[in-house]
């Protein structure tokens, strides 16, 4: 799917590269951590900043949309041609928590460029990938001599993606008229590697819960009482241990009900990807692969659901020792879901499974966060062809197909707007999403700009709107 | 074993009660937390304070003994009669960690009296129970008209008991000449209840370890990698879940090797104690009993070994969620041991058991703290009779026999000095050792003073020294 690149687009991008990166750094300095209440003002500041920047870019409309939580940003730039298709770009302006002491080499909210990489929380997930569209649309206009994009371009950049998008679906439902689109472009995923540009065809969903187990009313002496009362930390550990069977399959009854199994064709395409376990492990900062029996590593992260413990805590974790039975214990569990899995069903079966495992004397408080649905676009969808062509021009080479193991609220857009979802991402696995020293490769970021510059024209020419 | 109390002893105690409590409060204000390195200076201050106070009490010798860790205090008051037996009182001046935010109603290091109870960290464990001997010996002298105690009285008050007494055995070995005694009185246990005074005949031992499990080099994204690499928090949880079998017996192979089983006589005596599960549960601040099949609650805490998780931690434990696979996880495990169990053997089998359960990709760091041996004195030992008589006079009623589920370095004293160990404790289960709002009942504290006042004379009269 390689196409010829456009020298006018490339010249324009080269001329505006420095200012583009300065602007992005300014945005990355805002610690818009949606999961931490004390950063609520920063998330708002991030939304205000983006709306102002989109206005400067040329969007006739750029608005901050309130939600019961953190605000989103909406922008709109109509095409000249009233018959042009409408495209909605989705991304998010909030970021994961980050603190220098988590292992960052530099301040996570003070962007620095080292070795042609931009390091900052949000550099890849997702501010960098939202922001490349601002230069992309201007390059599209400059190179084609247009004063308006070839498509009716809309942007919806939410502020709660890293907190599970609790108000996103309601927002999309409330504003469905203004968000109406023929296609959704999700700019919040990645590609295979620097050398292997890919288009993602789906994301896993996500159901998350917190389980607090209450035992004694206070920490008690493990000598005076140990061996004769239930220990909530032990109960927490037993729940985690019961999540999987000996084949590393999730052992919660009903968990796999109704899932869409991987097709032979996609399995074959994935097997042809240049997967190297050693370099994959390096990107995972891990020392061994381990997972569901009967599946490859790629199948495990792209096409199989999981149960994972993201956090566990209880009792004394400081220096030395403290011989107590702790009063309580905490579990943070998450379940990645694949097409065909319903988060409501997952919540129901997890609650039933946990309830059966709570002994007398322990009280469990189980809280589910709002879930994210899985999302999958068929391999033969025509929209994927436009995207793959635009990417092929930017990268001057063939484009392959993958999926993402991560989760985003793309499925809500698909459900509510009735529009197919296409994934445009230039991040690579080593970018360290959610981890210390998150970065984006500057060359790839600019390929993202270029793909955006080509995409709107290709879609306008080749996309047939639904009748 | 009820005896007639001595009105001269009681009058003396009543007259000196206020000053005694003021002095104790002064000591309790020193936060001598041995497990926390930043309190090292406080532990030293506590030792200095005690040595000075023992000199004021009348002890001709009161010294601070250095160790490679926290200092101990030694004091000696020889009897007039060179043929008198020698008694060594053991206790400790260090305390468990405590912070207001753990659930204390008042500052743990600012003692307050409410409803005839003295609240402070160390009030019962162990400063209060050490300190009652200072008034006890003076009451003994005042009531008998002596200028020196009826026994050669020695005190050894260590400073690392709450840290597992890492240097205690070496100290006792180094100073065995000066510590030589015919009997050891351990003042670091409790009794059944306010209404049922008891003498403790043994304590459990304690082996403690920390297991750190290292997985990915940093926290990684649970979407991008989840389902395909081992999660160290899951491995930690599986270790905890594997500690016990379905009968709540410890499942580590060899754990029960060689243990001294409870005799039918002691089992019978315990069955006659006024045990009420509901009030025991209140003291445990717990809502159900649970433990090894085939044993009563008392047997479980007094005569059966345990495996307990005192702390577990890994990943994100803050507000909201963070979809990561954590880089590492922490376990703090402790094993209560009974007579016949060797801590070195326990360490060996725990290491072997854990090693079998660490999957590829996870690296385990296992550290054992210095262990405390179990200790048991036969029911028919003559020393117990003197102690039970002294206690019977103070309480004006019968005295029964129990054990303690807790652990202390008494067995080292028994081993090195070749002297039997007697346990004199007036604390009750509701005192909240190691927990928030630790307290001592003032009436019982003064009964401890009184028991101490009677004990030295009874021992001198009735104790036959080893030939």
TrEMBL record, chains A, B:
SUPFAM superfamilies: Zn-dependent exopeptidases. GO terms for molecular function: metal ion binding; peptidase activity. Transmembrane segments: none annotated. The lineage of its organism: Bacteria, Bacillati, Actinomycetota, Actinomycetes, Kitasatosporales. Residues 202-359 form the Peptidase M20 dimerisation domain. InterPro entries: Cyt/Met_Dipeptidase, Peptidase_M20, Peptidase_M20_dimer. Keywords: Hydrolase, Metal-binding, Protease. It comes from Streptomyces fuscichromogenes. This is Peptidase. It comes from the Bacteria. GO terms for biological process: proteolysis. Pfam families: M20_dimer, Peptidase_M20.
């Amino acid at each position: 799917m390689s196409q010829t690149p456009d020298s006018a687009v490339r010249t324009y991008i080269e001329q505006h590269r420095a200012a583009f990166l300065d602007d992005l750094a300014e945005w990355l300095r805002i610690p818009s951590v949606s999961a931490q209440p004390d950063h609520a003002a920063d998330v708002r500041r991030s939304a205000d900043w983006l709306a102002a920047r989109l206005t400067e870019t040329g969007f006739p409309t750029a608005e901050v949309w309130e939600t019961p939580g953190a605000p989103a940003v909406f922008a709109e730039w109509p095409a000249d041609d009233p018959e042009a298709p409408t495209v909605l770009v989705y991304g998010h302006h909030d970021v994961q928590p980050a603190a220098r002491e988590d292992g960052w080499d530099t301040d996570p909210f003070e962007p620095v460029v080292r070795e042609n990489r931009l390091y900052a929380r949000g550099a890849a997930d997702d501010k960098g990938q939202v922001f490349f569209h601002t230069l992309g649309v201007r390059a599209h206009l400059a190179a084609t001599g247009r004063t308006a994009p070839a498509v009716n371009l809309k942007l919806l950049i939410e502020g709660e993606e890293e907190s599970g998008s609790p108000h996103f679906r309601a927002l999309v439902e409330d504003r469905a008229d203004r968000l109406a689109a023929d296609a959704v472009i999700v700019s919040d995923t990645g590609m295979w590697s620097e050398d292997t540009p890919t288009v993602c065809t789906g994301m896993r969903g996500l159901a998350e819960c917190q389980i607090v187990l209450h035992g004694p009313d206070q920490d008690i002496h493990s000598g005076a009482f140990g061996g004769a009362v239930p220990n909530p930390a032990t109960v927490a550990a037993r729940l985690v241990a019961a999540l999987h069977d000996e084949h590393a399959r999730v052992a919660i009854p009903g968990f796999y009900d109704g899932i869409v199994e991987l097709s032979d064709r996609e399995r074959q395409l994935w097997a042809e990807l240049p997967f190297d376990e050693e370099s994959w492990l390096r990107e995972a900062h891990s020392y061994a692969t381990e997972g569901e029996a009967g599946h490859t590593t790629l199948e495990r992260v792209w096409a199989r659901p999981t149960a994972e413990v993201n956090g566990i805590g209880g009792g004394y974790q400081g220096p030395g020792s403290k011989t107590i039975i702790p009063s309580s214990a905490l579990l943070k569990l998450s379940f990645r879901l694949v097409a065909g899995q319903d988060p409501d069903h997952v919540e129901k079966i997890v609650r039933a499974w946990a309830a059966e495992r709570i002994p007398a004397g322990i009280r469990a408080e189980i809280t589910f966060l709002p879930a994210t649905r899985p999302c999958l676009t068929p391999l033969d969808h025509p929209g994927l062809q436009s995207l793959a062509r635009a990417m092929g021009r930017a990268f001057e080479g063939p484009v392959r197909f993958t999926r993402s193991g991560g989760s985003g609220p793309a499925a809500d857009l698909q459900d509510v707007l009735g529009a197919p979802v296409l994934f445009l991402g230039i991040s690579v696995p080593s970018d360290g999403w959610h981890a210390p020293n998150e970065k984006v490769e500057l060359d790839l970021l600019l390929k993202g700009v270029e793909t955006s510059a080509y995409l709107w024209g290709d879609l306008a020419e080749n996309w047939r709107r639904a009748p």
